[in-house]
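hey all, quick one before standup. I had two proteins in the batch that finished overnight and I want to keep them in one place so we stop losing track of which output belongs to which input. First protein below, input sequence then C-alpha cells straight from the run.
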Amino acid sequence: MRTVIIFCLCLFTFTVQAQDDVNYTYMDSLFQQLPEVLVKGERPVVKAERGKLIYDLPRMVERLPVNNAYEAVKELPGIVEQDGNLTLGGRGITVVINGKVSTLDKEDLRTVLENTPVSRLEKAEIMYAAPARYRIRGAMVNVILKSNIGQKPALSGEVAAMYEQSRREDIAGRGNLLYTSRRFSADVMYSYGFKHTTFGLDKQSWHTMAGEVHELDLKTEAKGYGGRHNLRLGADYDFGKKNLLSVVYNTQYRYGQDCTKMRGTAHSDKTDDGSRQLHNVTADYQSSFGLSAGMDFLFFSSPSQTFLQKDMQSVRQTLNYDSNQRINRWLFYANQLHSLQGGTEINYGVKYTTTHDNSYQFYRDGETGALTPDNSEKLLRKEYTLNMYTGASHSFGKKFSAEVSLAAELYHAEGRHSWMLYPTVNTTYTLADGHTLQMSFTSNRKYPAYWQLQPIIQYVDSYTEAHGNPDLKPSSNYSLDLNYLYKNKYMIGVNYNYTPDYFVQLPYQLP
C-alpha cells in the first residue's frame, strides 16, 4: 500500500510539472481510476508559439460529424463561413496547405480541401498577420497534412458519395489513394459533382432622370445546372537529412448553363453557356540548411456564349456575344531560414510573379450571327511583381512570443510603376492556462480582378450592366487586431482598418 501511495504522489508531481512547463489551453481530459486515488491528466489542444496558435485539429473534430479538411477548418475557434468564404474574426483569410502558397483562388482551394479526408490532417496553425516569408498578407490558416514518409510501404484509400434532393437532385462523389514508403509518398484525389441552381430576386427602383421619377418593378428568376471534375496528383521524395522535394498538380474542368428571365417594367431572356478549365503545377524543395525554393504555374481559361433579348419601354435589342478570359501566371520564390542560439530565427527571401491576361469579347449580329467588329474587344495585359522580404521570430520565456517582418514590393503593369513597404507584427502572450492575448499588425494591397480592368460591358439583364474600368489602381490596407482567447472556445476581438484608394464596383443603371 505504501508503494502505491508513493507511486501516485510521484505521478501527480510529474503531471503538475508538465502543466507548468508548457503553455497549453485544454479542452478534454483523460481519467484513470486507481484505488482510493483519482489521477487526472490532460492533453493539449492548442498552444501558442512564435506569434501563432497551433491546434491539434484531428482531436478537435474526432467526435464531430466532419468528413473533410474544409469542414474541419470551420471548427477552429474564430473561423466562420460567410457567403461561402471563410473568415477569422470577421476578416477574410488565406488557407495554406503545408506552408506552401498556391496561386489557386479561394474557390479552387476550397475544392482541394473538400477532397482531402480528415484522416490526412495533422494540425492547423492560425496567424492573424501572415509573416512575409509565407508570401501572402493578412490572416492565414496553415493546414498541415500527414506525410507518412519514413514508414513501411503502405497503400490506403477512401471513397465517398453524396445525394441531395431539394427541388432537383444534386450528386457528388470523391475518391483518393495514398501510397507511402520510407522515402517516397504519392497521392491521387478525384471528385465529381453535378448541381442544379435556382435563384429569384424582386427589384424595385425609383429612377430619377431630368427631374422626373420613373418607377420600376422587376422580378427575376434564374435556373441553371453545372458539373465539375477535379483531379489532384501529389508526390513527395525525401533525399535524407531533411532534404524534401514536393510536386503537386491540380486540374479542374467545369461546365454548365444559366437561364435568366426577368418580367415587369422591363422584359429580358438571357442564356449563358460556358465552361472553365484550370491547370496548376507547383514544385517545392526544402533543404537541410534552411533554404526553400520553388515555382508555381497556373493556366486558366473560361470561354462562354451569351444570348440576350431585352425589351424596355420602346427599346428592343438582341445581343449575342462570345467571351473568354485566358490567364497564364508564373511564380518563382526562394527563402532562407537561420536558427540562432537562444531560439531566435531569422529569414529572408525573394518572390517574382509575372501574369499575362489574354481576353476577348466578340459581338455577333442577333439575326445573322455575323461578327460586329465595332463592338468587339480583344485585350492583352501584362504585369509583374517583385517582392523582397526579411523577418525574425523569438520566444521570450514561456509566455510571450513574437514575429516581425518587412517586405518591399515593386509592381508594374500597363505603364504603372510603384514601390510599397509592408510591415507585419505578430505577438502572443499567455496570461494563464486558457487565457491568451494576441496582437497583430499587417498591411496589404488589394488588386482589381482582371475582369474588372477590361473596358467591356457585361449585360446582366435589360436594366443592369457591369462596366469594366482599366484605370483602376490597387488600394492599400492597414489593419490592427487585438484578440482575447478564453478556454479555447470564446474569442473577443477588436479590429481597426485603414484603406486609402479604396475601390468598389457600383451598379450601373441605364439612362
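OK second protein, same deal, sequence then C-alpha cells:
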Amino acid sequence: MTALFADWALLPQGWCANVRVEIDAVGRIASVSTDSHAQTGDTRLANRLLIPALSNLHSHAFQRAMAGHAEKKASGEDSFWTWREAMYGFLGQLTPEDVEAIAAFAYMEMLEAGFSAIGEFHYLHHRPDGGSYDDPAEMAQRIIAAAQTSGIGMTLLPVLYAQGGVDGRALNDRQRRFGCDMDRYATLHGAIKHSAADSVLGVAAHSLRAVPPAMLTPLASDFGGGPVHIHIAEQVAEVADVQAAYGARPVAWLLDNADVDPRWCLVHATHMQPEETIALAKTRAVAGLCPITEGNLGDGIFDGWRFLEAGGRYGIGSDSNVRIDLTEELRVLEYSQRFQDRHRTVMRRDPGSVGQALYQAAAQGGAQALGRQAGRIEPGAWADLTALEADEILPFVPGHQEWLDHYVFVAGDRAVRTVWSAGRMMVQDGRHIHRAKIAHAFKQTVAHLMEGGS
C-alpha cells in the first residue's frame, strides 16, 4: 500500500483539505480520508492540487506523425475529404515498428497533458496491400506495446471497416489496410483478446458509411459486452449520404436501429437536429467530442447547450492528434459554444465554475466511454490522478471555487506536474519519466518517413 497526501484534492463532494489517498498494489484507490494528517512514508504533494486525471476517449495515434503536414493551401476547396486523401497517402508507408514508435510518443504527450488513459480507435489492421500479417493482431499488439511503454491505461477499440460508402461500394486501394468482413473481424478481435489482458477491449464501427446496417447489431452484441464506439455525423456530406441511402439522418437512424445505451460513444455527433440532440442525451450514451481536431478539419460545432439541458454526457478526445492539449480541448469546446450562441459560460447549467463543470463532466464521460472505473477520487476507482502546480493557480484566484477556471482557461497544461495511471507515476515535474527514450525513437521514425520510407 502506498499513500499520497495533498493539501487540497477535488473529491466527488468538492474541494477538500488535507486529503490522504491510499493506493493498493494493483493501482486502485483503497481509501480516501479528509482533514487527515500525513503519515511516515506518505508521498507528500507539497504545493500541489490533486485532481482526477482525464481519459482521452478518441485517438488515431498514428496520425500524430503527420501533424502539421496537411496545412498547405492547394487549388480548389480544402475540406475533411481532401485531408483524408493526404492521410491515406501517409499511412500507406507505415510499418508496425513505425506505428509503435509514433503511438508511444503520442501517449507520452497525452500523459504529460494530464490524460491517464486512452481510447484507441484502431483501424490500421493490415499490410498496405490489404493482406494479413502473419499474426492478424500484429498492428494491435504494437498499439498495446506502445501503451505499455508509455504507461497509459488502454481501451483498445478495433474498428470494423467493411465498405467504401453507404452504397456498398468496395474499399479502394488506400482503404484496404482497414478492411474486414465479419469473419475476418472476428478472427482479428479474437487474436487481440489473447494479447490485451491488461487492457479494456471494446469494438468500433468506423461509421455508417463504412459499416452496413446488418453488421451493427452483431458488432455490438457478439464481442464481449465492452464499449461500443462509432464516428457519427461528423460532416455535412456524410449526413446527406446517409439520409439519401437510409431515409434518416445518421444519429436519428442509429437511435432507431441500434440499442444505443451507456456502453456507446458517438464520436463527433456534430450535425444533429434538436430532436436528435435530445434523443441522444436520453440514451445516456457519451458524445465523444474532439474540439481541436473538429476545428482543424472544419467539421462544425456541437450543440452543447441543448445536449446539456437534456442531461447529456460527454468526454473529450485528441482524435487526429494534430495537437495534444487537454485544457485546450476544453477551452475550444466552451469557446466554440460562445461563438455559436453569442453568449458566455455555456457548458454549465447551474451557477458556478465553468472550468470545474467542463473538467468533471469530461472526467466522468471519458471514463464511461472507455469502460474504465476512473474519473473520480474515491475507493475502488483506478488511481488515475493529476497533481497541479499550486503556484500556477492559487496566487491568481481568491478561492477554490475558481481554481479549475484558472487551470482550464488561463494556466493550461503547464500547470500539470505529476500524473499517475493506475497508481503508476508516469509524469514527474511535468515530464514523462521515459521521455528521452520515447522521443528518440519517434524522431528516428519521423526522419525515416520524411525520406519516403527508404
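Flagging for whoever picks this up: Residues 96-113 form the longest helix (18 residues). The mean pLDDT is 94.
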